[in-house]
Design brief:
The complex is a heterodimer of chains A (201) and B (129).
Chain A: H1 6-45, H2 55-58, H3 61-86, H4 90-120, H5 129-162, H6 166-198
Helix pairs in contact in A: 1-5, 1-6, 3-4, 3-6, 4-5, 5-6
Chain B: H1 7-14, H2 18-41, H3 47-68, H4 78-109, H5 116-120
Helix pairs in contact in B: 2-3
Classes of the chains: A mainly alpha (201), B mainly alpha (129).
Chain lengths: 201, 129
């Protein structure tokens, strides 16, 4: 290693960071399996309304569409934040990640508002098998979003204190993968739970 | 890899042209979401046709986001794709298997006369032939 150039060192780092990213990707795949079991549970139980409301009765579609657009936009702004990171633009990174955070918070707020609305109408998870599986599936996604929001706060504090170090870059990359992944899971919740919930065959 | 490249250049090489990719991905995602939404809400289609179209739109959006947001399909992502395909197989087994088994179970168990009482007495339902 006597003639290590900066490029070789950077390449080594890149290889190490790629391995970390791959490890995180494998975690995301296992998280997909978790969601798959919850989707399967929902698919099995969604007709078991036990005399309670069915999916036709309780979903407010314009509201859900707004929720979806908010989350899609937050995924996009997260990507723009990553581009700012790779240009070494710290301010841009912070601005885009703050926007991502606020959009994520809006999404979570909307989701909790929807849950609260359902629960106060007597349609909580206790009402029927359908609602239990619905709250578990959508709630698990919401929990992931909440974790992501916490993660953003920690990352932004670290960026402020340490600047754009290699470690920060790696963690931000993992976060962006996590955030895009949650967006994909939501697309399937939007399609399978909400869109397929309001159509009749 | 050229030995004269700097750290910064290596980073930018990985993400060249990504702004265009993110923007295309974003526009396509929004478009696919709105199309699926309007087809359902305005009853453009119905029945199984509708169902298959919105599922296809969801899968299209999955591919869009994997390619444009998670950069799957670039030269480094071979093992990511392998892990993804394996996950997909497990996912399909879990989801299709669960639905298949539970449908059969419902079909064989749920006769209208069947009540909680009968279940408690340990009477099994007559299998439907």
């Amino acid at each position: 290693m006597s003639h290590t150039t900066i490029a070789e060192l950077a390449h080594e780092h890149q290889v190490a960071d790629d391995k970390t990213a791959f490890g995180f990707w494998v975690y995301l795949m296992t998280d997909c399996i978790l969601f798959a079991t919850l989707f399967a549970t929902y698919a099995v139980l969604h007709n078991n309304t036990y005399g309670g409301p069915s999916s036709h009765d309780i979903f407010d579609m314009p509201f859900v569409l707004r929720e979806t657009l908010v989350l899609l936009t937050s995924s996009f702004t997260c990507g723009l934040g990553m581009l700012a990171l790779h240009r070494g633009n710290k301010t841009g990174l912070k601005v885009w990640f703050t926007i991502t955070f606020l959009l994520g918070l809006t999404f979570l707020g909307m989701e909790l508002n929807e849950f609260h609305h359902l629960a106060t109408e007597g349609n909580s998870w206790r009402r029927s098998g359908f609602l239990s599986s619905y709250f578990t599936l959508v709630g698990t996604h919401g929990l992931h979003i909440a974790t992501g929001l916490l993660w953003t706060i920690v990352l932004m504090i670290q960026v402020s204190r340490q600047g754009l170090t290699r470690g920060i870059t790696r963690r931000l990359t993992l976060f962006s993968m996590f955030w895009h992944f949650l967006d994909i899971v939501w697309i399937f919740i939007f399609t399978i739970v909400y869109l397929m919930g309001v159509i009749t065959i | 890899m050229n030995k004269n490249t700097t750290v910064q250049e290596i980073h930018t090489q990985e993400h060249e042209g990504s702004l265009i990719a993110y923007t295309i991905g974003f526009i396509l995602s929004i478009g696919l979401t709105l199309i699926a939404y309007f087809i359902v809400v305005h009853h453009v289609l119905s029945g199984w046709g509708l169902l298959s179209v919105i599922l296809e739109l969801a899968v299209a959006q999955l591919i869009v986001q994997l390619v444009f947001f998670l950069h799957l399909g670039n030269r480094k992502s071979h093992w990511n794709i392998m892990a993804f395909v394996f996950m997909l197989i497990v996912l399909l087994i879990i989801v299709i298997g669960s639905i298949w088994i539970m449908k059969n179970l419902n079909y064989n168990m749920a006769t209208p006369i069947q009540t909680d009482n009968a279940v408690q007495k340990g009477e099994s339902a007559q299998p439907v032939l």
